[in-house]
Specification:
- By secondary structure, the protein is an alpha+beta fold.
- It is 20% helix and 32% strand.
- Strands 1, 2, 3, 4, 5, 6, 7, 8, 9 and 10 form a ten-stranded mixed sheet that branches.
- The radius of gyration is 24 Å and the shape is globular.
C-alpha cells in the first residue's frame, strides 16, 4: 500500500543544517538525515478510497521531506507517510467552485510485487488543502523536487531497447542542405559516403 500509517515524523534536517553537516565531511553519508523541503501547518487531507476508515482527516501539519511525504494530525498525533515513487501524479487544482488544493494520484500497489499492472492498477486519490492557498506553489515545488530525487527504476526491457540503434533510423546527409549534424549523424554520413578516415 502506498500510504503507511504512523505517528512518528522521520528524522530530518533543515536545508541550512544539511549544508553545514555536509561541509564538515561526515564519516558516513548514510547517517545524514533527509532534508525538510517544506513544512505547512493548518492543512487538511482527504483520500478516495478512504484510509483507515477516514475519508477526511483532521487539521494537521504537512512535511515534505526528501525521504517521505508526511502528514500528522494536530489533535490526535496520528498520521501517515508516503514514499515518492508511489505518487504517480501531483498537480495544483484551482477548479472553479472548489477550494484550491494539491491533487495527487497514488499507486496503491506500490511495494507489493504481486500487484497487477495496466488496467488493474490500484489507484487512490489524495487531496491536500492548506488553509493558506498562497502556499500551494511552494508545496508543489517541494513535491516536484523530492519526486526528482526518486526516479523510477528502469526495467530490463528499457535497457535492451536503448542498447542498439538501427542505422535505418538515420537519413543520409547532404552537404548542400546546409544542415547541422549531430555526432551520430556525422558518423552515419561518413559511413554512407565512404568518407571514413583511412590512415593506411
Amino acid at each position: 500500500m502506498a500510504v503507511v500509517l504512523t505517528s512518528t515524523i522521520p528524522p530530518f534536517n533543515t536545508p541550512d543544517d544539511h549544508r553545514a553537516l555536509v561541509s564538515s565531511t561526515p564519516e558516513n553519508l548514510s547517517d545524514i538525515p533527509a532534508v525538510l523541503r517544506h513544512k505547512q501547518d493548518n492543512v487538511r487531507v482527504s483520500f478516495d478510497p478512504a484510509i483507515d476508515g477516514q475519508p477526511e482527516w483532521g487539521v494537521g501539519t504537512l512535511y515534505v521531506i526528501d525521504s517521505f511525504l508526511v502528514f500528522i494530525q494536530t489533535e490526535s498525533g496520528k498520521g501517515f507517510q508516503i514514499e515518492y515513487p508511489a505518487i504517480t501524479l501531483h498537480a495544483i487544482s484551482r477548479a472553479e467552485g472548489e477550494v484550491p488544493n494539491i491533487y495527487c494520484q497514488l499507486d496503491d500497489g506500490f511495494g507489493n510485487p504481486e500487484a497487477l499492472d495496466g488496467e488493474d492498477e490500484q489507484m487512490r486519490e489524495l487531496i491536500i488543502t492548506p488553509s493558506d492557498p498562497t502556499s500551494l506553489d511552494a508545496i508543489f515545488e517541494a513535491l516536484s523536487l523530492c519526486a526528482s530525487l526518486h526516479p523510477d527504476e528502469p526495467s530490463p526491457s528499457d535497457d535492451e531497447d536503448d542498447a542498439f540503434v538501427d542505422a535505418d533510423d538515420f537519413d543520409a546527409y547532404d552537404d548542400d542542405e546546409g544542415e547541422e549534424l549531430s555526432q551520430v549523424g556525422k558518423v552515419r554520413s561518413d559511413f554512407i559516403n565512404d568518407n571514413r578516415y583511412q590512415p593506411y
